Amino acid sequence: MFARTMMGMRLSLVIGLVTAGLSSLIAVVLGAIAALGGSVADHIVSWLIDLFIGMPHLVFMILIAFVAGGGVKGVILGVGLTHWPSLARLIRAEIMKLATEPYVEVSRRTGFGRLRVFWSHILPQVESLIVV
């Protein structure tokens, strides 16, 4: 019984880690686009987040898993593609707050582009939020 439990737990841990990684990646990309891309990008991403939060979560997850063919791949895609909106909203708010910090403003005025400022100043500050 213990061996069967360990084998099942191994699969569950793999599914959990892959889906968390996929969901976090989507959330970071969309949160950064919303916070740093300007008002049009912010409105589009915020609308997309609200759309996903407003949908019935379980039904959408089952639909994605069914379309993906079921199995482990379907579960990973279903969970990974439906669990990003709340993290994206949180990351967006944190990046918008960090974008007004003095050290970010100084780095922008010294000639760094948005992407370099994001990678060197903002992402390290948001990293703990992503990991949790």
Automatic annotation (TrEMBL):
<keyword id="KW-1003">Cell membrane</keyword>
<dbReference type="GO" id="GO:0055085">
    <property type="term" value="P:transmembrane transport"/>
</dbReference>
<keyword id="KW-0812">Transmembrane</keyword>
<dbReference type="InterPro" id="IPR035906">
    <property type="entry name" value="MetI-like_sf"/>
</dbReference>
<dbReference type="InterPro" id="IPR000515">
    <property type="entry name" value="MetI-like"/>
</dbReference>
<dbReference type="InterPro" id="IPR050366">
    <property type="entry name" value="BP-dependent_transpt_permease"/>
</dbReference>
<protein>
    <recommendedName>
        <fullName>ABC transmembrane type-1 domain-containing protein</fullName>
    </recommendedName>
</protein>
<keyword id="KW-1133">Transmembrane helix</keyword>
<keyword id="KW-0472">Membrane</keyword>
<feature type="domain" description="ABC transmembrane type-1">
    <location>
        <begin position="9"/>
        <end position="132"/>
    </location>
</feature>
<comment type="similarity">
    <text>Belongs to the binding-protein-dependent transport system permease family.</text>
</comment>
<dbReference type="Pfam" id="PF00528">
    <property type="entry name" value="BPD_transp_1"/>
</dbReference>
<dbReference type="GO" id="GO:0005886">
    <property type="term" value="C:plasma membrane"/>
</dbReference>
<keyword id="KW-0813">Transport</keyword>
<feature type="transmembrane region" description="Helical">
    <location>
        <begin position="58"/>
        <end position="82"/>
    </location>
</feature>
